């Protein structure tokens, strides 16, 4: 039996999201029906709206959903009806990356997350009998109900029963990505300098994680005064206002160079400038969505001679399950206070939430979709 849901439809570039009634398909054996309680808004939703990412529009976006399981397919073991769950990115489970527990680099990542359909091409969402883009990050959670999968859902541990789902929702993308980039992808070592370019959700999560890892100094770079201030409160030892003299200031703070530079801006000039600040054996980690035609220009001798690494990072090399639980535990210890980034919006105010994110006023808008 299909499920009727109320969803926010993204019609395309420059246009506001609008609410509509949609039908969700019957569950497959490895799928999970979630009644969505809350969903974070991430910059990547905007990147799809602006078609920097190839998900066909119109579509139901949203990929930081949390909610209650309403139904499960026969082969689902990760959660049962009534469980509180967080949804994250999806993966195939049988490619060379999934085989070594690196699902963010799934060979079929696009088909499972960005195609607007299930990987087999079938639609999960229809409207008036016509297919609408769905299965975004294996969830499409800007909706009252979402079809997720056995591989992209984690059950909230019983030890976190007191934490509201509306707070936990954004763990499934931006927070996990920033923290994972530091703790997993770059494996930041204690006592070495890191600079984080861009202090939105991903950058601030990286700064909290850099403090957990013991990096020193921890330098936050952004043009928004309020964001670098927050970065300082969350663990940055130094802040630098983005601008022409930013790289000189970094050099003064870390004269031997940066052991780690983490770019969340996706801005070519920032990335190339950051590369020049890398110390021998240093790592430049990249997560930002940039214009698809952008190419980077790096000096080969500097890259080779210093044994430097430039790495693309997806999802902070997270594995969905255990890493999200690890982040919840850091939060409970007071070491990952990501709730300071959140402002809540009613589901109907999704466009206001997006605007608040894009203006820089709110770091992490979270939509309240139903009561827990
Ligand atoms: N690779 C992944 O797995 C992954 C996951 C989540 C998000 N993302 C991408 O990461 C990026 C960051 O996401 P977010 O949610 O933190 O976005 P965000 O928009 O909240 O943060 C980006 C920050 O960069 C700052 N910025 C922009 N230009 C700058 C410059 N020239 N110098 C310094 N700071 C600058 C902005 O002021 C903003 O604070 C986005 O492009 C998003 O699409 C990637
Ligand atoms: Zn795979
Ligand atoms: Zn995201």
From TrEMBL:
<dbReference type="Pfam" id="PF00107">
    <property type="entry name" value="ADH_zinc_N"/>
</dbReference>
<keyword id="KW-0862">Zinc</keyword>
<comment type="similarity">
    <text>Belongs to the zinc-containing alcohol dehydrogenase family.</text>
</comment>
<dbReference type="InterPro" id="IPR013154">
    <property type="entry name" value="ADH-like_N"/>
</dbReference>
<protein>
    <submittedName>
        <fullName>Alcohol dehydrogenase catalytic domain-containing protein</fullName>
    </submittedName>
</protein>
<feature type="domain" description="Enoyl reductase (ER)">
    <location>
        <begin position="12"/>
        <end position="367"/>
    </location>
</feature>
<dbReference type="GO" id="GO:0008270">
    <property type="term" value="F:zinc ion binding"/>
</dbReference>
<dbReference type="InterPro" id="IPR020843">
    <property type="entry name" value="ER"/>
</dbReference>
<dbReference type="InterPro" id="IPR011032">
    <property type="entry name" value="GroES-like_sf"/>
</dbReference>
<dbReference type="GO" id="GO:0016616">
    <property type="term" value="F:oxidoreductase activity, acting on the CH-OH group of donors, NAD or NADP as acceptor"/>
</dbReference>
<dbReference type="InterPro" id="IPR036291">
    <property type="entry name" value="NAD(P)-bd_dom_sf"/>
</dbReference>
<keyword id="KW-0479">Metal-binding</keyword>
<dbReference type="InterPro" id="IPR013149">
    <property type="entry name" value="ADH-like_C"/>
</dbReference>
<keyword id="KW-0560">Oxidoreductase</keyword>
<dbReference type="Pfam" id="PF08240">
    <property type="entry name" value="ADH_N"/>
</dbReference>
<dbReference type="InterPro" id="IPR002328">
    <property type="entry name" value="ADH_Zn_CS"/>
</dbReference>
């Amino acid at each position: 039996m299909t499920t009727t849901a109320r969803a926010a439809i993204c019609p395309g570039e420059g246009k506001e999201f609008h609410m509509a009634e949609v039908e969700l398909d019957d569950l497959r054996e490895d799928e999970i029906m979630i009644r969505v309680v809350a969903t974070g808004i991430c910059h990547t939703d905007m990147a799809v709206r602006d078609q920097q990412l190839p998900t066909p529009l119109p579509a139901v976006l949203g990929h930081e959903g949390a909610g209650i399981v309403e139904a499960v397919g026969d082969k689902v073991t990760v959660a049962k009806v009534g469980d509180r769950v967080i949804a994250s990115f999806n993966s195939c489970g049988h490619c060379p990356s999934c085989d070594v527990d690196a699902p963010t680099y799934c060979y079929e990542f696009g088909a499972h997350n960005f195609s607007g359909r299930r990987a087999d091409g079938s639609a999960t969402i229809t409207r008036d009998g016509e297919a609408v883009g769905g299965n975004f990050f294996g969830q499409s959670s800007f909706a009252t109900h979402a079809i997720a999968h056995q591989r992209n859902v984690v059950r909230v541990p019983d030890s976190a029963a007191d934490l509201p789902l509306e707070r936990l929702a954004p763990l499934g993308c931006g927070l996990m990505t920033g923290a994972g980039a530091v703790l997993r992808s770059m494996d930041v070592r204690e006592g070495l300098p890191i600079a984080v370019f861009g202090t939105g959700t991903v950058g601030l999560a990286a700064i909290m994680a850099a403090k957990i890892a013991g990096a020193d100094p921890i330098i936050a770079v952004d043009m928004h005064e309020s964001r670098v201030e927050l970065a300082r409160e969350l663990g940055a030892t130094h802040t630098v206002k983005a601008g022409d003299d930013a790289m000189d200031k970094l050099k003064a703070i870390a004269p031997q160079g940066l052991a780690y530079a983490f770019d969340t801006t996706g801005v070519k000039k920032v990335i190339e400038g950051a590369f020049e600040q890398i110390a021998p054996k240093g790592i430049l980690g990249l997560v930002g969505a940039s214009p698809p035609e952008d190419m980077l220009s790096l000096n080969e001798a500097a890259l080779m001679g210093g044994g430097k690494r430039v790495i693309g990072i997806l999802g902070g090399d997270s594995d969905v399950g255990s890493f999200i639980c690890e982040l919840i535990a850091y939060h409970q210890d007071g070491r990952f206070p990501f709730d300071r980034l959140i402002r809540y919006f009613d589901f109907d105010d999704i466009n206001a939430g997006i605007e608040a994110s894009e203006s820089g006023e709110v770091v992490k808008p979270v939509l309240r979709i139903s009561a827990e």
